[in-house]
Automatic annotation (TrEMBL):
Encoding gene per record: LOC108995858
Family: Belongs to the zinc-containing alcohol dehydrogenase family. Class-III subfamily.
Protein name: alcohol dehydrogenase
Biological processes per GO annotation: formaldehyde catabolic process
InterPro entries linked to this entry: ADH-like_C, ADH-like_N, ADH_Zn_CS, GroES-like_sf, NAD(P)-bd_dom_sf
Catalysed reactions, semicolon-separated: a primary alcohol + NAD(+) = an aldehyde + NADH + H(+); a secondary alcohol + NAD(+) = a ketone + NADH + H(+)
Keyword vocabulary terms for this entry: Metal-binding, NAD, Oxidoreductase, Zinc
Subunit note: Homodimer.
Enzyme nomenclature, EC number: 1.1.1.1
A family per Pfam: ADH_N
Cofactor entry: Zn(2+)
Length: 376
């Protein structure tokens, strides 16, 4: 009989987080067969995202396998799965698309009611884990857990992609780069000739810059406290760089002055709710729009004076750039194959799986954009 119909438990290596901020430990884990409407994936490449760091540093559920920005090959499929078959190349996604719920069918949202952001460390279908060590459950992260040689995801949280696309590059499209491009194109819908200001020049912020450049923005101002990012940012479309630490005035006043009243669009890509107000204040009256993409580490509540909105400004949130993952991600992969968008430029380090803690160190030091972790 086919292994697709009767998959078995796989024992493989996984980087397990046993406690908040503790180094990941390479362990032998058991990975259960995929249940109905699930697939098991052999992970080829995964990259480290800032939200992995944020969750790892928090008092979240442990033990846990982090990682959500990944590419791989389908190893087996569960009952009822007809979209995938063994050998398909896929991207994982942390927020799925069931294509049946009100949100998915609306054409207005990518917030799937059935496969939205999973925070409890278990599978969507039965609220159990597919990982264990000596029978002890190991919890999932964002319904993906790609810091493992094999993982199990709901079929709605994976996207089939062209086998022509290099898996060690397109893994970036399963979160960070896609999130930034979508914020610029889908959420803000940046217009040609506009002025854009971006707070935070990590992968997401630079992806916003890339998207703004491709939309024909005339000025793209990058704001970051790391001066090393200023020069690199030019390759992604940043036309001016501002370091708030080198200004005698609040940065929003500087931006309003140099733009003659404020930017048309501002993007908060840091994960600091206080910066949302700063971003709003950096926009112009009448039509200024602020989009927030960052995941805050602390103080999740924000405050803003009502007059900022009374004078016409708009604040929008953005999850995964508004992309419907299964419907939209294949087109982004095609754009990369045609060299219409940049990916390689975000990859500052390639690291073997055994050295995964080095990736955490580099991101913690602010020394990288994306570390791509190669499983073999």
């Amino acid at each position: 009989m086919s292994s697709i119909k009767h998959p078995h438990v796989i024992t493989c290596k996984a980087a397990v987080a046993w406690g908040a901020g503790e180094p990941l430990m390479m362990e032998q884990v058991d990975v259960s067969p995929p249940q109905p409407m699930e697939i098991r994936i052999k992970v080829v490449c995964t990259s480290l995202c800032r939200s992995d760091i944020t969750a790892w540093q928090s008092h979240a559920i442990f033990p846990r396998i982090f990682g959500h920005e990944a590419s791989g090959v389908v190893e087996s499929v569960g009952e009822g799965v007809i979209e995938f078959q063994e050998g398909d190349h896929v991207l994982t996604v942390f927020t799925g698309e069931c294509m049946k719920c009100r949100q998915c069918k609306s054409g207005k949202s990518n917030i799937c009611e059935a496969l939205g952001l999973e925070r409890r460390g278990v599978m969507h279908s039965d609220h159990k884990t597919r990982f264990s060590i000596n029978g002890k459950p190991i919890f999932h992260y964002c319904a993906v857990s790609s810091f493992s040689e094999y993982t199990v995801v709901h079929s709605g949280c994976a996207v089939k992609v062209s086998p022509l696309a290099p898996l060690d590059k397109i893994c970036l499209l399963s979160c960070g780069v896609a999130a930034g491009l979508g914020a610029a194109w889908n959420v803000a819908n940046i217009s040609k000739g506009s002025t854009v200001v971006i707070f935070g020049l990590g992968t997401v912020g630079l992806s916003v810059a890339q998207g703004a450049k491709l939309r024909g923005a005339s000025r793209i101002i990058g704001v970051d406290t790391n001066p090393k990012k200023g020069e690199k940012a030019k390759a992604f479309g940043i036309t001016e760089f501002l370091d708030p630490n080198h200004s005698d005035q609040p940065i929003q006043q500087v931006i309003k002055h140099i733009t003659g009243g404020g930017a048309d669009y501002s993007f908060e890509c840091i994960g600091d709710t206080g910066m949302i107000t700063t971003a709003l204040q950096s926009c112009c009256d009448g039509w200024g729009m602020t989009v927030t993409l960052g995941v805050p580490k602390v103080n999740p509540e924000m405050k803003a004076h009502y007059s900022l909105f009374l004078t016409g400004r708009t604040l929008k949130g953005s999850l995964f750039g508004g992309w419907k993952p299964k419907s939209d991600l294949p087109s982004l992969v095609d754009m990369y194959i045609k060299k219409e968008i940049q990916l390689e430029e975000f990859i500052t380090h390639n690291i073997p799986f055994a050295d995964i803690n080095k990736a955490f160190d580099l991101m913690g030091e602010g020394s990288c954009l994306r570390c791509v972790i190669h499983m073999k």
